[in-house]
Amino acid sequence: MRNIFADAPRASLTAAYWAFILYLLLPLTLMMAMSFKGANYIAFPIGEWTFDWYVQVMQDKQFLDACLYSIMIAAATTVAATTLGTWIAMLIVAEGIRGQVVIFAIACLPAVVPGMISAISLRIFISTIDMPTGTMAIILGHTVHAVPFVVVMALTRLRTMPGNLVDAARDLGADSVVAFFRVTLPYLWPALFGGMIFCVLLSIDDFVRTFFLGGYRPTLPMLIFAKVQGGMSPEINAMATLVLVVTAAVGLYAEYMTRRARTR
């Protein structure tokens, strides 16, 4: 009897875990299933199964253009956010710098500010400096949102770095720049690689800031949003499924490469 009561909390946690997993995966599973529906409407039963919606999506020039535009913005955002995030992380752990807690708090502030508030404030900012809406404004907004995640991941890695590695490089004649590129940066690479993938996924998925800062050329979330306004169809499900599969694959690959780099 005692063993039964001892196992009860563990069984409850296991049941709660699988219920949560079902809660997360069931809507995605239904969305993916509807992308194979033969009819031009979303409802059960599915009846005829088809791949025609995927063929139609892959031939949709508007969809392909939105994908390329989103990838271009994500690449620029990743470069900017990784550069700024790494520099801020190095500044926080550097010796002799005052106000490091304040620097960390300011750097991480965009991650806790609601997306709507952040988007409105960025729109006011670009209007103040006379920056037009469009590509550069979107990259600015996405970079501001992505920097905190790079800072946190880089800091986590930097705080496990033995201090004698840089000291040894300096004793061997390396200056600060050489020591950073030959010692610190290779040690940081697993965290930075994970942060870069995170920046890509955040940028591609960012709808609110893109909505407020974007121009006439739609990104992928904006295109899907525009199509939803005309009514749901299996074509939209096919688009969402492709995005889901690609982003999940990228995330899993990043996790694999990060684990592999840390075990070397």
Write a brief structural summary.
This protein is mostly helical. Helix content is 78%, strand content 0%.
Provide an overview of this structure.
With 264 residues, the protein is an all-alpha fold. It is 78% helix and 0% strand. It has helices spanning 2-34, 52-58, 61-93, 100-112, 115-128, 135-158, 164-171, 176-205, 208-213, 220-229, 234-262. Helix 4 packs across helix 6 (135-158). The longest helix has 33 residues, at 2-34. The model has no long low-confidence stretch (mean pLDDT 84).
Specify the helix fraction band.
over 70%
Computed CA radius of gyration, to the nearest angstrom = 23 Å
Q: Detail the poorly predicted runs.
A: none
Count of DSSP H/I helices: 11
Oligomer: single chain
Strand residue content? under 5%
Main sheet specs = none
Order of helices and strands: HHHHHHHHHHH
Number of strands: 0
**From the helix content, strand content and strand pairing, which structural class follows?**
mainly alpha
Summarize model confidence as the mean pLDDT.
Answer: 84
Provide the fold topology.
Blueprint: H1 2-34, H2 52-58, H3 61-93, H4 100-112, H5 115-128, H6 135-158, H7 164-171, H8 176-205, H9 208-213, H10 220-229, H11 234-262
Helix pairs in contact: 1-11, 2-11, 3-4, 3-6, 3-8, 4-6, 6-8, 7-8, 8-11
